[in-house]
Amino acid sequence: MCTRLILAGWDIVVLEKSNAPPKGSPTGAGLGIDPLAQQIIQSWLPQPELLQEAILPLTIDQNIVTGGDKSTRILTRDENFNFGAAHWADLHSLLYDALPPEIFLWGHVHLSFCISEDQTSVNVKAKSLQTNEIIEINGDLLIAADGCLSSIRRIFLPDIKLRYSGYCAWRGVLDFSGKESSETIIGIRRLYPDLGNCLYFHLDSGTHSVLYELPKKSSTGFDAAVLGKCLQKWGLENLPSALEEYQSVRVPVISQQVLHSRRLGRIKQGLYLPDRGPFDPSTASPEDGEELQQKNMPFFSGAPISAD
Ligand SMILES: Cc1cc2nc3c(=O)[nH]c(=O)nc-3n(C[C@H](O)[C@H](O)[C@H](O)COP(=O)(O)OP(=O)(O)OC[C@H]3O[C@@H](n4cnc5c(N)ncnc54)[C@H](O)[C@@H]3O)c2cc1C
Known about the structure:
Elements: H1 2-7, E1 14-16, E2 30-33, H2 35-44, H3 49-54, E3 55-58, E4 60-66, E5 72-78, E6 83-87, H4 88-97, E7 104-106, E8 108-115, E9 122-128, E10 134-139, H5 151-156, H6 183-191, E11 198-204, E12 207-211, H7 222-234, H8 239-268, H9 286-290
Helix pairs in contact: 7-8
Bound molecules: flavin-adenine dinucleotide.
Region (Disordered): 272-308
Protein name: FAD-binding domain-containing protein
C-alpha cells in the first residue's frame, strides 16, 4: 500500500515497533499466493519479474486421507489449481526493497492518537524504544495496520473481543538441500509424489497436515491494494468517500472468507458444526471432501478491487 500511496503523491511515515526489518531466515514460514495477489504485488515492484523468481507454481490441490488401517487414499484432486508458494522472507524483502528506507521509523511504538475537531487531521504520538523519546506526527490519515491485537481497533470497536475459533497449527520449513537421497526425503516423496507443484492436505482423525514445496532461495495484500486504489481515486479532499468505498468493497469479501476459513478449520479439526456431522477421514467419500477444496473459498478466482 505504501508504494501505491507514494505513486499517488502521498508522504508516508511507517511506525514499526520492531527494531529492524526482518532478515531473510531460511526457516521462515511459507506463504500461499493466489493469482490476483501475484498481479497486485507485481504492480508494486520496480522489477516485477523478480516475483516470479521467488514463487513456485502450485497446479494441484489435493486432499488425501489416512484410513482406519493406516493406508492412504486420495479424497479429492483438483488439477486446475492456479496458485503459488513463496518464502515469506523473500516476499517481504521484495516489497521492502521497493520502498524508500527513510519512510520507516523502526523501533517506534505507537502510543496514542488524537483526531482534530474538524476531523481533517490526526496527531499521532509514538515512543522510540531505544531512546524513550516521544515523537509526534501530524497527518491526514492514520492507517492502523497493527495486527490482530491492534490497540487502535480496540479504541473504535471496544466491544469486539478476540475469540478462539478452535483451530491450532504448528508450522515449520524443512531445508532438505543436500539431503535429497536421505531416507526421510525419499519416504516423503514416495507418499507425496507431486510435491513441487501440489498443495497437499493430509487429513487424519481430528487433525491434518499441509505440505508444499518452497522455491530454494532465501531472501496479501488485497486490503492494501484496495485502500491504496481508493485513496488514489478520491484524493485527500474526498477522504471519507475513499474510506467508504474501501469498506464497501472489502467487508463483504473478507466476512465470507473468514467465515469459510473458520468452517473449514472446524471440519478438519473434527469439531462440531450445526449443519454437518464430524468429519471422519477414514470413511469420507470424495463428495464429503468436495467442500474442503481450495477453489471453494469465496472469491477464490478473484475479488473486486473497486466499487465501479
Ligand atoms: C504462522 C503463520 C502463517 C501464516 N500463513 C499465511 C499464508 O500462507 N497466507 C496468508 O495470506 N496469511 C498467512 N498468515 C496470516 C498473515 O500473516 C496475517 O494475516 C497478516 O500478517 C496480517 O497482517 P497485518 O498487517 O494485519 O498484521 P501483522 O503482519 O501482524 O503486522 C502488524 C505489525 O504492526 C506492528 N505493531 C503492532 N503494534 C504496534 C504498535 N503499537 N506500534 C508500532 N508497531 C506495532 C507489529 O510489530 C507488526 O509488524 C499466517 C500467519 C501466521 C502467524
